[in-house]
Amino acid sequence: MKQDILEILQGIVPEQVDENMIEEPTYTHLGDYAFPCFSLAKVLKKSPVLIAEEIAQRISDPRVQTAKAVNGYVNFFMNKPYFSQHILETIINQSNQYGSSHIGQGSVVTIDMSSPNIAKPFSMGHLRSTVIGNSISLLLEKSGYQPVKINYLGDWGTQFGKLLVAYRLWGSEKKVQDAPIETLLALYIRFHEEAEIDETLNDQGRAAFKSLEDGDSEVLALWKWFRTESLKEFQKIYDLLGVSFDSENGEAYYNDKMEPIVEELTQKQLLVKSDGAQVVEIGDDMPPCLIKKSDGATLYATRDITAALDRKHTYNFAKSLYVVGNEQSLHFKQIKTVLNKMGYGWSASIQHVPFGLILKDGEKLSTRKGNIILLERVLKEAIQLASVNIEEKNPNLKNKIEMAEAIGVGAIIFSDLKQHRKHDIEFNLTKMLQTEGETGPYIQYTCARAYSILRKAETNSHDVQVNDVNDYEWVIIKLLNQFPNVVSRATTSLDPSLIAKFAVDLAQSFNSFYGNVQVLTEDEGRNYRLALVHSVTIVLKEALRLLGMKAPQEM
Fold first, then answer.
1. Containing H/E element for 20?
2. Residue 315 and residue 344 in contact, taking contact as beta carbons nearer than 8 Å
């Protein structure tokens, strides 16, 4: 509709207006859209009030019911039946392709996401990277890009040296076999507790990791065992979340690929010694990027630089995204700067997509301190609570187990994605599962309600003939019209919360319509109202899909 208004205005005041100048009034009695004429006053050498009156008088277009000049604004009241018919026909014809575009033109975007550490449980702290990255990949795909999801597993580094030392000192093979993740976590926590008393343990941890890097067979066998058991546990989580990956090359994959990069840095005279370590000087505004420790061990930066080069060679990406917490911002600035100094101009296409923390009682989660929330346990609890709700409200529901999973898991995903990703989130499972307010179950229940109306109608007629549109319906039409733009903005800003907020608005507007309009009344507007309900199911289902959620047809 904004495009139509822009087209009309450009026919009256050419080259003086753009779409950003067209506003939506706060109050509906002021119109559907408004065009302020104040910026034209200097150009046209007239008062805004006079300009608005002249423009309003010249508007004669079937798409506009009325144009009124009010205090320097031109207020547009759109032709509701005309637009309603056009929008509903478009949605029904395009179905789940509504809102899709070819902006990406098939270009590849790699997405570094999830990336849990092996030998540790999959905590709520890794949920954010997983669901934000997954939603971004779905948005990119809908906008014509080719996303490549990479689970860059934390399967290398000094922490594994510490774990190996802990296992040798206090570990039991049988306990690890019986409960691998829980046992390894307990060992990791104990190591840090003991290291506060005996500082030599940290030296032993560093030495153990160096032997792992050097390929010590005994150490390597233990590490592979830890990794295999961890991946089995992680897969249970990914199956519940409905998340899959195109690559699971973790940090260890680059262990034998780093030396040529270190050599390249040396040849390009970028490496300098600092307290025995080798670093790349970046400038006054950032600390140097540490490439090798004094003992020769590599670091995160070494592996990330190597990984970036490998991904460019493998995928020839147009953009490379890293869905990693806010606290890693400096790290990615350093990586980009080093790659740029190496002469790789494509480093500008690397983008850190930061997000905030999940808090428990206002405090940051910490694996070292044992202050964690296990995601698998939370998902199971959410599914169980959803199952109890189903038994209370709809005990005869078919596929109750499947529905409980869709609702419970969806509640957790939605509670994360409805927030802007940079914000911290306070974990509260009870609030997540509420069926009222801005929650996942509320959106899903609304979608199921709309499907229920269509089942009761017992018709597949998509014949849309719109003669009259009431206020409740017009609010929905305008929202449905906005969906492609919301998808575009969410993709550009890498912000799934825009989709979540849109879904809330559409669900609330639909429920208001449902409570005030008799949809199934046998009159000339019945097919139109059913087409409206059908369009809501299409768009709500697609919005939920873009968030990584399911849209049950019955709840």
1. none
2. no
Q: What is the pLDDT of residues 127-153, one digit of tens each?
A: 999 999 999 999 999 999 999 999 999
Tell me the Cα Rg of the chain. 28
How far from each other are the two terminal CA atoms of the chain, in whole angstroms?
35
Residue 391: φ, ψ to 5°? -60, -35
Domain enclosing residue 33, as ranges: 2-78
pTM score: 0.90
The reply to whether 42 falls in a domain is yes
Q: How many domains does the chain have?
A: 1
Percent of the chain scored above 90 by pLDDT?
70
Contacts of 543 (CB under 8 A, 6+ apart): 443, 483, 499, 502, 503, 506
For the domain that residue 17 is a member of, what is the CATH number?
3.30.1360.70
pLDDT at 365: 59
Kindly list the distances between the CA atom of residue 297 and the CA atoms of 116, 201, 210, 221, in Å, as whole numbers in the listed order: 22, 17, 6, 20
Place 123 in a pLDDT band, splitting at 50, 70 and 90.
Answer: confident
**Distance of alpha carbon 425 from alpha carbon 127, whole angstroms:** 12
The reply to whether 48 falls in a domain is yes
| The amino acid at 468 | D
pLDDT in tens, 446-484: 999 999 999 999 876 667 889 899 999 999 999 999 999
Instruction: Say if 545 falls within a structural domain.
Output: no
Residues in the chain: 555
| φ, ψ of residue 35 in degrees (nearest 5) | -120, 110
* pLDDT value of position 359: 78
CA separation for the pair 421, 423 (Å, rounded) = 6
In a domain, 258, yes or no: no
